[in-house]
């Protein structure tokens, strides 16, 4: 294992987001991070960049998480090495924050407080915060699944139904479960609510105005605030495509970087006002009816599509390292460079993007070589992984052909 750097990254997760963070460290420092996961996933298990993966089946359990990470810390502790902890999904980040006091005895990391996490992740609290700070959100109601009363607010259809507590929702699996429901009538809405209640999910549901527009009306922003709360990076990007299967809606598969200083500063000011630290990833949608960007949520971590930040020379790993290891101060960067991030093949972009202006931009960026797919990282040499990725690319075409959102 390399030894020249005074830190070792410990990445929690084995999915695409974990892979993107792993290659960010490899690109910047030549380091192969340690991954910790509950199960092997092909993104990382077939990689030469992430060859050390500690699998622990109880990792996602509240009662086991801290003990597992302390055990990992003891295994990899070495003189002159600081262990840098990074989570890659909502559950792992929540567990890091809830166990922050004990984990700080073994690791350094940059996440928000538990109180702020609950303000941002409980959607009713988040939308109230947005209102206070002048951030637009869609018209939204909350329905408590513990209630025996039906939902009776007047809504214009179609509407969106989704869980307020995604972590609890994912623990109550049921046949036909969707990440987000788009429903067209009161009858369909009541059926969906009953199905979710019957699964055992007992938290709130978000019942929300559907903002019209295809995937290209969705937008993304990545912001990094250092451990002192000083913003160092703000980005803005237009979604080109998102996943179209019912279990994966909301996962972006392609986006183009854009520049909107007014909106970027607005999101930055919001995070600074609430005392945010670490990476944040906003999901927004442009509402052509009133010409405003509406915020859906903020993820309290980098997203799986946030790798475009690294691709444009603002390596995500370096933000963590410069902040937590070297205590370096950086001026704020408002990213203003053209780039097409994609995890789907060019044929999918050409055939399934209907927005002609966006399609024109896609062709321009591909022609200029200003695009990239992090899964095909050049220094990852595993042959079996390359075959897996090629099969995945073919499968993506079939998925978009057979699934319309």
UniProtKB/TrEMBL annotation:
In this chain the ATP-grasp domain maps to 127-325
User: Under the GO molecular function aspect, what terms does this record hold?
Assistant: ligase activity
Keywords of the record: ATP-binding, Ligase, Nucleotide-binding
Statement: the UniProt record of this protein carries the keyword Transferase: no
Residues annotated as coiled-coil are none
Task: Output this protein's name.
Answer: Carboxylate--amine ligase
